[in-house]
Amino acid sequence: MKILLQQARYHGPLPSHLRSKAPKGERADFLIEDGVLTKVGSGLKAPGALVIQSKDLHLSRGFTDLYADFGTPGYENRETLESGSLAALAGGFTRVLLQPDTRPVLQSGGEVTALRLQSRGLPVEVRIAAALTEELSGEACSDMLDLKHHGASAFSNANKAIPDAGTMLRLLQYGGMTGLPLMVVPCEPALGRGAQVHESMHSVQWGLTGWPVVAETMAIDRDLALLGYLKGPAHLHFSKISGAESVEKVRQALAQGLRLSCGVAAHHLASTQEDVEGFRTDFKVYPPLRSPTDRAALMEGVLDGTIAVICSDHQPGDSESKDVEFPAAAFGQAGIQHAFLAALEAGSLLDARRRARWVSRVVQALTEGPERILGIHEQVLDSMDRGQPNGWVVFDPGYTSGAAASHAAPRYSQGVAQAYHRSPFRGTLLAVVGPGRTLVASEL
Fold this sequence. Notes:
- By secondary structure, the protein is of the alpha/beta class.
- It contains 15 helices and 20 strands.
- Helix 4 packs across helix 7 and helix 7 (214-230) runs parallel beside helix 8.
- The longest helix is centred in the middle third of the chain and has 17 residues, at 214-230.
- The chain is globular and about 60 Å long.
- The model has no long low-confidence stretch (mean pLDDT 95).
């Protein structure tokens, strides 16, 4: 399939043989043929190509999601590999790292191998984060070296805390031997136990147990202290942070040279605790949506590079887990199809001067950031230089087109809690080229 983009702005480095054709930051025409960027220039012609034009056209290589669940194995009633991968592609993600909180937990070489085989032929590239601890209990280390041998790309404890400092120290020591990132969601479990929403006047008014930000920052303090103590090769990644203090602690740790990275879920950029009003279970997420002040700090973290990754935190639920009273509802939302547009929409809060920077940083946090954490950034660029097919995302952030508009996009995910499915967005996805399938505007 041929796709011709007219007057688009490109994000990231072009393939080496095309770099002189489009100076950085300037608009140009781009021709994509069967997943390969073949021509760049002005006034390009391509008979038979799908021509895409827009007021503010942008092109990026495909996005990588570092935090998603596709239901397999054990929760296919919530999502399947097929439905999850289609939802991912429709959201611009051409590579997804699946989390290990399945049934059974992904903690053996055989389970990792089986899921990798099942994932072949999907419209996106699937990678696997194997369990960091056995049964995600936060206690005994998993057999990380064997899991790496069987194809694990990272290790994660999903949303489960590591309650013991001694265990965390051993995980950093052992995990550092693998060369793969160790992913945790920081939380002091004693402070988060039974919590439902962010601790604030809202939680009091709603009669729900509050979840203080200090539950997150205490865990971050401990893990940073251990990382500094070891001064070793372990790469610690905080999968999802949610508070202003967390951003500042990570910023200071990075300045000290610690081998650390962190991510934020797109819904923490797009929404705040006020969106839970009316006991909306589709906004019951882990960690909880925080205050507008916290959101502003998270956005600053994205803008200055402290936050290297934006993830979808795609955790689809079914009616039994989400269409219930708020305290009984499971955490999570099916957000992968709308994560990018939701993150872009957050940029509408910024002044016009900073919006261009926001678009650039969001794209970087969905491409280079996660690629570097997985250790594949140079490999991706090299494959582009060699003319191999690559994933591509074509979009218009919509900041120049006025008010946000609702999108009647197809629902690809099986998850019932799709908080942003009919949300008004300024941005628009115009085409996504994946490794196994291309979706164009009418399918997005």
